[in-house]
Amino acid sequence: MRSEIYAALEITKNELRFAVGKYQSNKTLKVLYKFQENGNWLNQENEVIDSKMVSNLLAKAVKEYERNFNKKILKIAVVVPEKDTEIKEAISTLNISNGGPARIVTQQDIIHLNNEAKDVNYSDSRKVVSIKPTRYVIDDTYKKGVAPLGAVAHKIAMYSNVYTIPTKVYNSHLQVVKMAGYDVLNCLIKPYALARQIVNIADLRNKISLVVNWDSEYISLNIFAQETLVRITPINVGLDKMAIEIGNKIFTKPDVVKKYLFKILDFKSNNLSESIIYRKHLTNENKNFELTIGEFKNIFSELISNIMRKLNNIIKHEIIQNTNNDYQIYHTGKITEISGFEELLVSKELIDHQMIYYSDVIGGNDIWTTALCGIMIQEHITNKNSKVITTSTGIEMVEEINPTPSVYNQNPNLGHMAGPQHNHNHQPLLPNHNHTFQHANLNGQFHQPQNFAAISHGHNIRNSKFQ
Question: SHS2 domain: from which residue to which, for each copy (predicted)?
Answer without folding.
Answer: 6-198
